Amino acid sequence: MSSTISDLRPLATVSGRRPLWFAAPAAALIYPFPLMAFHAATGMIATGAVTGWLIAALSLALAIALPVVALLAAMRLSLVYRPTAAELLARRVALLAVAAPPLFTFIGVIFLLLGAPQLDVWFVSAMWLLLAVAIRYADNRAPAAMSAPNPHGKMRVAHGAAAVLVLVYIAFHFSNHLFGLIGDEAHTAVMKLFRVVYRAAWVEPILLAGFAFLIVSGAQMAWRLTERGTDRYRTFQIAAGIYLIFAVISHLNAVLYLARVHLGIDTDWAFATGAPVGMIKDAWSIRLVPYYLLGAFFVVAHTFSGLRVVMLAHGARKPLADTVMLCGAAFAALLSTVIILAMCGLRLHFV
């Protein structure tokens, strides 16, 4: 653990603030509605209303901010070293709420496949409401039962090794998306070149197995690591990992089943950006903007979080390891912003 018990706040300083338990599920419950407001604002913009631009900007900013609210709540709740059952549930729900964007997208695809796309908002609202009720009635009288301490040494090494394999593919994928800044044709040309490698008959199954292992091992480690309190850096790492678990599940479901099997179409730039309408103007596809933005951010930031743990394990000074992680997070924010701007239509023109 990167922090000592003395670094964590006493139980009483957090347990007395019950409203904090519900901040994350409330943020996740609200999440779909700013996206709906954004789409309504695009209609106002089309009529020339200036207020449409303001509503659109504020709505999208709020949608992106709500998972951050959940993250901040999780960081605060993780300062309790020996949580009660209620606090432990609130902590885990807060970490899950950080993944509201991929969860909303995944559930949306499921209801699309079921032929009832209008029910996805009702479903996620009920889900977060039920989790809040579960927190309310969970036991807050005694510390929750904990499993025996487990350093996850071998699991962490295997998880890291699988991550290196997957990150090679992600480097191809992200660089391909950056070519979208030049244009659809440039992206398509690079995609066809890269696919010779990562869609080879023997490579793709290995990649899928790598993703599956990362999901299973990451979920197991996150479950055990949340039993005890930790610092904000480790909480950020866990939250990023949980986000990526659901982002990968959502992405694979959309690519492997929705596109390839159900629709029988290619998962190219047009599919990723919601062409011909685009992500910005489509009522359903607008959810992809915060989902992709935070997804790209957490991929890179989670990698640097893992690097921080490796540095600390090999004797690096904590201020140095923390700085490396923060610089990596700043780079992740820049990269994810450029990628999402390309996917939303930003183009570079060279003279």
Please, could you describe this protein's structure?
The protein has 351 residues and is mainly alpha-helical. It has one domain (5-343). The protein is built from 14 helices and no strands. Helix 6 crosses helix 7 (120-136). Mean pLDDT is 91; it is low at 1-7 and 10-15.
Outline:
The protein is mainly α. It has helices spanning about 10-15, 20-30, 30-45, 50-75, 85-100, 100-115, 120-135, 155-180, 185-200, 205-225, 230-265, 270, 290-315, 320-345.
Cα shape = globular
Total number of beta strands? 0
> SSE string, helix = H, strand = E?
HHHHHHHHHHHHHH
Instruction: Please tell me the overall pLDDT.
Output: 91
- Overall SS class: mainly alpha
Number of H- or I-type helical stretches: 14
Main sheet properties: none
Provide the helix percentage.
over 70%
Uncertain residue ranges = 1-7, 10-15
Report the sheet-strand fraction.
Answer: under 5%
Radius of gyration: 21 Å
Keywords for this entry:
0% strand
Summarize the helices and strands and which ones pair or pack.
Blueprint: H1 11-15, H2 19-30, H3 32-46, H4 50-77, H5 85-98, H6 100-113, H7 120-136, H8 153-178, H9 184-198, H10 203-225, H11 232-263, H12 269-272, H13 288-313, H14 318-343
Helix pairs in contact: 2-4, 2-5, 2-7, 3-4, 4-5, 4-11, 5-7, 6-7, 6-11, 8-9, 8-10, 10-11, 11-13, 13-14
